[in-house]
Amino acid sequence: xxxxxxxxxxxxxxxxxxxxxxxxxxQESESIDISEGGICIKSKTKYSQGNIxxxxxxxxxxxxxxxxxxxxxxxxxEGNYDLGIEYINVGNKDLEEIKKYMEDM
Length: 105
Hints:
Thrombin, subunit H
């Protein structure tokens, strides 16, 4: 499999919450891996490619809020999905927290 990613990924489990931009309630989830440009997560909710999602990442004692776009979704068993999410709206401070967290891994 060729790796066309722009940013290197770190395999790490990060507790997080997410929701579709139109939803009220957030669901708990966790990451599979993370990079400076996106994150791969586990989800119990099916999303479609192009859906906009709101993410809250718990990076140690920091809370990082990110808006992302679902780039791909793969169902691996009934009601369980892996999502590839590209960051589309992340502040410089939050991006620095992600970089620092990845360096500390």
